[in-house]
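Here is a tokenized protein:
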Amino acid sequence: MKDNTMAEMARIAETVYRLARPGMKPKELIAAVRKEHPNISKKEITRAAFYAVILASEHKSERVAELHDIAVETRNSPDDTQLDDH
């Protein structure tokens, strides 16, 4: 079961990595990720965003700071009942 959860988190992190852009608002990232993972919660997207930071760091990607910024912004964004209805 745990392997399945980590595999899903890795897939979501890859989606975050691919979709995240500099200056992107948390609401935009959440909406974009939910297009590919419709039943995901904001909390899971936030976790995946931080996982994407770790993966980028391991690969010495230039996107580490950008991904970290959006992960923090997403974590700190207010819960919006329309947005985070899962």
About this structure: The radius of gyration is 12 Å. The longest helix spans residues 2-19.
